[in-house]
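// run 5 | inverse folding | seed 20
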């Protein structure tokens, strides 16, 4: 995945910049992919988040659904939440 020259190319598209980063070590790509998976986002979005946090500081952004579930406190054993069996109602076809 490596090339000989290190370049970062910026191009403006409809007021949003596009950033192409070359010469990324395979180890970094794998870690980015893993981190993106942990956050439930694409590698591209994870890359944006890392850059945003590094350059603009961390923002108080809403948690992802996965993060929200992970932060829920332990509520007790599963059998506390068992539902009574409901056979349904009889219908005529």
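// decoded
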């Amino acid at each position: 995945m490596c090339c000989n020259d290190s370049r970062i190319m910026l191009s403006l598209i409809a007021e949003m910049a596009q950033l192409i980063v070359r010469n990324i070590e395979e180890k970094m790509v794998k870690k980015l992919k893993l981190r993106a998976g942990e956050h439930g986002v694409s590698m591209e979005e994870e890359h944006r988040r890392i850059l945003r946090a590094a350059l603009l500081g961390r923002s108080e952004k809403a948690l992802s659904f996965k993060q929200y579930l992970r932060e829920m406190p332990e509520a007790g054993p599963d059998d506390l939440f068992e539902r009574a069996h409901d056979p349904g109602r009889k219908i005529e076809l």
